[in-house]
């Protein structure tokens, strides 16, 4: 190996105009050709296209290339592809050096093509230097057994567990609360097609099937004390009632759910007046079918959402419509006003919106920069809102004021991050491996992600993710 | 019992269902009725909210499909008959001739270069996309094999210059075309892959389950909607996506159809055509982010271009979407809450004047743009009706495949063993499609 | 008053109930508040109103402001808003109902006078022209054309011709103020060889009672014209308005 004649092949990708629109690629190729150790350099319009990959293989063979430098997008998505390709051309896949000239050059220096081209040259030069030092590597195979730990016993976790267990694998659900069900335990009804069903019925059916499944073991009131190891070989220490227990785990599914972000004290009179509640607090009343002796309900959407620090809460619009309809079902003559910025109701949700209007629920649109004001006058709550569709200010009395707030990850997020060495965003939602193509994975193998621990979503989407995460966790277990 | 599964549709949903099932250890038949897998995503330029290049992230997955020993890809193939049998399905398919021997074609493109006839491309015709009679669907196509237009035969394209020789015998008697330029070019490369008289192939499969991933389509605006099909410079959002795509007909130049000049003032009308009359009474949910993406990219091409989005309710429901909208605003994209109605063309310079009422101020405004983009939303694939009949599945009132019970058993259908994912279920974005595909593959392999 | 805050508990919404009853189920509930109606309406901006705001007022129950605004009389009933509306919300239908809430005598003088004029005799003419005056003008103009314009010696403008295929009505401003304006249409009908007739009764084409939201008057005029057409045995009613 030491005396081997090192012959580097450099492949610089245009990525259509993604790179070539900024970086002078022919110049970079020409530059690479002149560098020590470089046997061959070429430009590709899309180096990842099937024909370009075939050409790369031919060039490798023709020029007896034994170190490959690919200067293109990002190793995050494309390294496996080029590794496989050079392997097919007879070069050990560990003799590939990937240089990012899209994410690190053309995208960040979009308006300075000369600097970008210079930086691309420098990075390619460094890549070539590193490639010349690369040594062959070997992949070892570790056995993966069939024990899957699911963190979180809400709908996502339970759905994932059922699907894992149905294959004959073992599923261990770790739930910090006393019972399974998660967020759904606190919810009254779920919109379903054109109707509603009781959340309690869904939770009960799912809990029963999970608890009676021979391959599922449920740990309630249990916390995770420690996780060590890697895919196929995690040593997990659980803690319940002061006692510790150890588990040998092969794969992990994170389904820790989410929680409401409480409004600030005094915001819209929240905390200072018991008539001001959040949607989840309202759900409790709706679950009990008792909203009290009230006449006027006002719901304010986008509370602490869609601002400089936080995005759309994702589910507030359909939730506010659903709960408004439930209030109307409990007592028809209660006046309900929903104050909103944008109505985010897609496809079939439009049907619920129309039903709400037919039931007499009023929708009032306020400007992004002019939130409603809540005033307490002689003990009465009055909401002042500027209806921009009308161009007038409205005064709406309210004896129940509901705030549709945003969500954040569970309190256990920091702990889980530490145990599994995964990352999250500022609101405590876990970061998936790739926002488009790796929505259920973490960057590390063997750990998958589902449900509202990733971002707020509907029950249907949560269940779909639970099933999907089970698949992601099962592939290595199935292959052993 | 046979342990393999069938996936109908090779878009991003079908690809992910196939890869998951194959990695799980299941034999997969991935069927697509077009010449390449890739679907809608292969046509897009970038993806929201990260502006990842669409084909760049999809191509590695397509390549993985192509190379996976457990996946057999059948392109240009339609499902004809499906019969439920004990523990699975008997499926009859037809693989339409692509007039090429796929074993011999290496995708070198010599035939494409040799072909003397260019015609408007099905996908990009409106924005001056042309293709040869023999063509590669797109550079990253899988399989990387060209297709020949069936019209090449029987002298149908003689007038356009396709037939070069003075043949003495009738086409139907000869059935060889030894002098066709594509045939000669291919032979010169030493491959001899052109088979101009290839027949369709009937195929039979036995599978234990089926995943329907037949995708979704962008809505075609009715003629006259905001001047579409009447004025040259009114195009749809998918046509605009092709315009800004480096792999599209203009190589990423945002030029207008009428004079091929760069557009300096571009307007996007959101919810265009949404309504009872046009079959899209619902919100298609992705268009807001698509417009944000298109304006951001337009600004990246040339920051001096004025971009205005006329919209009503902003849909920023997903992770990172709100930040993406804010990025558009930071980049100088103008958002106006309005839904224009009148569009008038200046017959001289072909500029368009739109008239709208600003919802927030009540002002009536007239504005001129160089190019008008209609965000027309998503509609069910035109394959759904036929496919539903063959599979004995129900469609919902819009024409999407119906789930048995969306909450209790998501992605399952009225027929045991047939599952849904992606655009077949309704308007959906890429990551949601991947989630559903992964879930559907779980159900299908069990 | 226009800038004071509106206390919603004082709103009754009786007009909304009326709209809901008279217009097809769910019509108001379909509104997407997109404003396409206002973008297309020729009356947008007048009286600081537009169709979108009008619908908004009706939805919220601002009966008084929605129905009493003089804007409801500025609407031309052209139905452009309805054509443009993605959800087919019948705004002109609502405007019609709003007009009906006005005491008849308080409705705009011009429209009211024209409707009353049309109800005066069987002509149904907003100009009040009597049947015999119309007959005289038509015959007089036709004769003049036949005599003075070469090539039109055979031009006919029949009145009460039994069995004619088309029954034609006529905006009554023309016979009264600009009789020559009637001629081009006659010539077209002549060239194509149409078998047509005016009626001595119910010939007035405009129907101001409809614009006045006077159900009875509107019905009276339509019924009278239709009756005349069927008496003459005409097959097709050509409405020129």
Structure commentary:
The complex is a heterotrimer of chains A (480), B (446) and C (241). Chain A has helices spanning 25-33, 50-62, 75-88, 102-106, 113-131, 155-165, 199-211, 279-287, 316-330, 349-358, 413-420, 459-479; strands spanning 8-13, 38-44, 67-72, 96-100, 147-151, 170-174, 189-192, 195-198, 216-219, 222-230, 233-240, 243-249, 251-254, 258-260, 276-278, 296-303, 335-340, 362-365, 373-377, 380-387, 392-398, 400-405, 407-409, 447-449. Chain A is of the alpha/beta class and 480 residues long. The two termini of chain A are 34 Å apart. In chain A, 52% of the residues are buried. The model of chain A has no long low-confidence stretch (mean pLDDT 94). In chain B, helix 8 (321-330) links the parallel strand 17 (306-311) and strand 18 (334-337). In chain B, the strands form eight sheets. A five-stranded parallel sheet of chain B has the order 5-2-1-13-24, with helices on one face. Chain B has a five-stranded parallel sheet with strand order 15-22-16-17-18. By secondary structure, chain B is α/β, with parallel strands linked by helices. Chain B is built from ten helices and 24 strands. The model of chain B has no long low-confidence stretch (mean pLDDT 93). Chain C has two domains: 8-102, Fumarate Reductase Iron-sulfur Protein, Chain B, domain 2 (Orthogonal Bundle); 109-238, no CATH class. The longest helix of chain C has 18 residues, at 131-148. At the A-B interface, helix 2, helix 3 and helix 12 of A face helix 1, strand 4, helix 2, helix 8 and helix 10 of B.
Layout of secondary structure:
The complex is a heterotrimer of chains A (480), B (446) and C (241).
Chain A: E1 8-13, H1 25-33, E2 38-44, H2 50-62, E3 67-72, H3 75-88, E4 96-100, H4 102-106, H5 113-131, E5 147-151, H6 155-165, E6 170-174, E7 189-192, E8 195-198, H7 199-211, E9 216-219, E10 222-230, E11 233-240, E12 243-249, E13 251-254, E14 258-260, E15 276-278, H8 279-287, E16 296-303, H9 316-330, E17 335-340, H10 349-358, E18 362-365, E19 373-377, E20 380-387, E21 392-398, E22 400-405, E23 407-409, H11 413-420, E24 447-449, H12 459-479
Parallel strand pairs in A: 1-2, 1-3, 3-4, 5-6, 5-13, 6-9, 13-24, 15-22, 16-17, 16-22, 17-18
Antiparallel strand pairs in A: 7-8, 10-11, 11-12, 14-23, 19-20, 20-21
Chain B: E1 5-8, H1 12-24, E2 28-31, E3 46-47, E4 52-53, H2 54-67, E5 71-74, E6 77-85, E7 88-95, H3 110-114, E8 118-120, E9 130-132, E10 134-135, E11 147-148, H4 171-174, H5 181-188, E12 201-207, E13 209-212, E14 216-218, E15 234-236, H6 237-244, E16 265-269, H7 287-301, E17 306-311, H8 321-330, E18 334-337, E19 342-345, E20 352-357, E21 364-369, E22 371-374, E23 378-380, H9 384-391, E24 418-420, H10 430-445
Parallel strand pairs in B: 1-2, 1-13, 2-5, 13-24, 15-22, 16-17, 16-22, 17-18
Antiparallel strand pairs in B: 3-4, 6-7, 7-12, 8-9, 10-11, 14-23, 19-20, 20-21
Helix pairs in contact in B: 1-2, 1-10, 6-7, 7-8
Chain C: E1 6-7, H1 14-22, H2 36-40, H3 51-60, H4 63-68, H5 80-84, H6 91-100, H7 109-120, H8 131-148, E2 166-168, H9 173-177, H10 183-192, E3 196-197, H11 208-211, H12 215-231, E4 236-238
Parallel strand pairs in C: 2-3, 2-4
Helix pairs in contact in C: 7-12
């Amino acid at each position: 190996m030491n005396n081997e004649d090192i012959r580097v092949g450099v492949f610089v990708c245009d990525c259509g105009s993604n790179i070539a629109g900024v970086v002078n690629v022919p110049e970079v190729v020409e530059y690479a050709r002149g560098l020590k150790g470089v046997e061959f350099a070429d430009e590709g319009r899309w180096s990842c296209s099937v024909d370009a990959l075939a050409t790369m293989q031919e060039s490798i063979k023709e020029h007896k290339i034994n170190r490959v430098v690919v200067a293109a997008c990002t190793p995050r998505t494309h390294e496996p592809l080029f590794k496989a390709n050079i392997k097919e051309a007879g070069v050990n896949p560990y003799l590939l050096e990937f240089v990012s000239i899209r994410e690190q050059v053309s995208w960040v220096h979009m308006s300075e093509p000369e600097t970008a081209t210079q930086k691309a040259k420098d990075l390619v030069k460094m890549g070539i230097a590193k490639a010349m030092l690369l040594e062959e590597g070997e992949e070892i195979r570790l056995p993966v057994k069939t024990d899957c730990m699911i963190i979180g016993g809400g709908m996502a976790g339970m759905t994932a567990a059922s699907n894992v267990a149905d294959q004959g694998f073992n599923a261990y659900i770790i739930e910090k609360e006393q019972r399974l069900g998660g967020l759904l335990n606190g919810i009254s009804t779920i919109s379903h097609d054109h109707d509603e069903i009781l959340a309690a019925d869904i939770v009960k059916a799912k809990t029963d099937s999970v608890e009676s499944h021979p391959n599922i073991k449920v740990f309630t009131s249990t916390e995770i004390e420690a996780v060590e190891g890697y895919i196929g070989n995690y040593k997990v220490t659980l803690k319940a009632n002061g006692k510790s227990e150890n588990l040998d785990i092969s794969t992990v599914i994170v389904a820790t759910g989410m929680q409401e972000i409480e409004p600030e004290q005094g915001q819209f009179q929240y905390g200072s007046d018991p008539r001001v509640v959040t949607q989840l607090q309202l759900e409790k009343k709706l679950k009990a079918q008792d909203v009290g002796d009230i006449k006027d309900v006002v719901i304010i959407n986008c509370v602490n959402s869609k601002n400089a620090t936080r995005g759309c809460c994702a589910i507030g619009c359909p939730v506010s419509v659903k709960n408004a309809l439930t209030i109307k079902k409990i007592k028809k003559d209660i006046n309900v006003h929903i104050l909103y910025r944008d109505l985010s109701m897609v496809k079939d949700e439009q049907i619920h919106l129309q039903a709400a209007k037919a039931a007499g629920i009023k929708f009032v649109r306020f400007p992004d920069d002019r939130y409603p004001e809540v005033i307490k006058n002689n003990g009465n709550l009055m909401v002042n809102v500027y209806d921009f569709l009308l161009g007038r200010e409205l005064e709406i009395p309210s004896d129940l004021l509901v705030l549709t707030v945003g969500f954040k990850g569970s309190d256990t997020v920091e702990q889980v991050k530490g145990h599994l060495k995964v990352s999250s965003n500022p609101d405590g939602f876990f970061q998936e491996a790739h926002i488009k193509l790796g929505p259920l994975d973490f960057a590390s193998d063997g750990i998958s992600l589902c449900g509202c621990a990733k971002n707020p979503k509907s029950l249907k989407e949560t269940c779909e993710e639970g099933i999907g995460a089970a698949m992601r966790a099962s592939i290595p277990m199935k292959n052993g | 019992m046979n342990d393999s599964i069938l996936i109908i549709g090779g878009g991003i949903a079908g690809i992910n269902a196939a890869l998951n099932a194959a990695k799980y250890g299941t034999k997969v038949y991935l069927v697509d009725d077009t010449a390449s897998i890739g679907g809608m995503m292969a046509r897009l330029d970038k993806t929201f909210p990260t502006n990842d290049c669409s084909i760049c992230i999809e191509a590695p997955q397509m390549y993985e499909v192509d190379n996976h020993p457990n996946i057999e890809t059948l392109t240009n193939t339609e499902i004809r008959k499906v019969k439920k049998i004990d523990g699975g399905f008997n499926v009859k398919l037809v693989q339409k001739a692509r007039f090429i021997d796929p074993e011999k074609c290496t995708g070198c493109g010599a035939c494409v270069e040799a072909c003397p006839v260019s015609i408007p491309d099905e996908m990009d015709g409106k924005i001056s996309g042309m293709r040869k009679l023999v063509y590669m669907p797109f550079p990253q196509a899988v399989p990387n094999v060209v297709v020949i237009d069936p019209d090449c035969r029987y002298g149908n394209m003689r007038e356009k210059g396709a037939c070069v020789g003075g043949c003495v015998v009738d086409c139907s008697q000869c059935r060889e075309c030894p002098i066709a330029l594509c045939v000669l070019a291919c032979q010169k490369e030493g491959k001899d892959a052109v088979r101009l008289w290839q027949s369709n192939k009937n195929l039979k499969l036995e599978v234990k389950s089926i995943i329907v991933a037949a995708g979704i389509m962008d809505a075609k605006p009715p003629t006259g909607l905001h001047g579409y099909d009447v004025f040259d410079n009114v195009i749809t959002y998918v046509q605009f996506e092709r315009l800004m795509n480096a792999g599209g007909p203009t190589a990423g130049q945002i030029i207008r159809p009428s004079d091929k000049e760069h557009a300096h003032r571009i307007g996007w009308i959101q919810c265009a055509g949404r309504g009872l009359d046009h079959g899209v009474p619902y919100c298609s949910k992705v268009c807001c982010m698509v417009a944000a993406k298109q304006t951001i990219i337009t600004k990246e091409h040339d920051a001096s271009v004025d971009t205005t989005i006329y919209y009503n309710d902003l849909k920023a429901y997903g992770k990172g979407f709100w930040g993406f909208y804010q990025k558009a605003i930071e980049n100088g994209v103008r958002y106006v809450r309005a839904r224009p109605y009148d569009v008038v063309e200046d017959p001289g310079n072909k500029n368009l004047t739109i008239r709208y009422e600003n919802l927030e101020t009540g002002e009536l405004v007239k504005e001129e743009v160089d190019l008008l983009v209609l965000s027309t939303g998503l509609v069910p694939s035109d394959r759904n009706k036929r496919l539903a009949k063959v599979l004995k599945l129900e469609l919902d009132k819009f024409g999407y495949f119906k789930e048995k019970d969306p909450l209790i058993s998501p992605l399952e259908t009225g027929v045991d063993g047939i599952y849904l994912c992606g655009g077949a279920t309704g308007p959906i974005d890429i990551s949601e499609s991947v989630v559903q595909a992964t879930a559907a593959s779980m159900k299908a392999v069990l | 008053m226009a800038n004071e805050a509106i206390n919603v508990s004082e709103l009754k919404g009786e007009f909304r109930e009326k709209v809901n009853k008279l217009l097809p189920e769910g019509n108001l509930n379909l509104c997407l508040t997109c404003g396409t109606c206002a973008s297309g309406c020729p009356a947008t901006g007048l009286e600081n109103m537009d169709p979108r705001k009008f619908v908004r007022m009706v939805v919220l129950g601002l009966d008084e402001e929605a129905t009493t605004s003089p804007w409801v009389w500025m609407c031309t009933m052209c139905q452009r808003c309805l054509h443009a509306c993605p959800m087919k919300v019948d705004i002109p239908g609502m405007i019609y109902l709003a007009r009906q809430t006005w005491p008849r005598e308080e409705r705009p003088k011009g429209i009211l006078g024209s409707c009353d004029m049309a109800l005066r005799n069987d002509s149904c003419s907003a100009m009040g022209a009597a049947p015999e005056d119309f007959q005289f003008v038509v015959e007089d103009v036709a004769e003049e054309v036949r005599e003075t314009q070469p090539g039109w010696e055979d031009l006919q403008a029949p009145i009460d011709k039994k069995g004619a295929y088309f029954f034609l009505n006529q905006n009554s401003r023309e016979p009264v103020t600009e009789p020559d304006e009637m001629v081009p249409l006659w010539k077209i009908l002549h060239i194509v060889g149409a078998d047509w007739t005016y009626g001595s009764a119910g010939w007035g084409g405009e129907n101001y009672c409809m614009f006045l939201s006077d159900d009875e008057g509107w019905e009276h005029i339509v019924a009278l014209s239709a009756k005349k057409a069927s008496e003459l045995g005409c097959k097709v009613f050509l409405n020129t308005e």
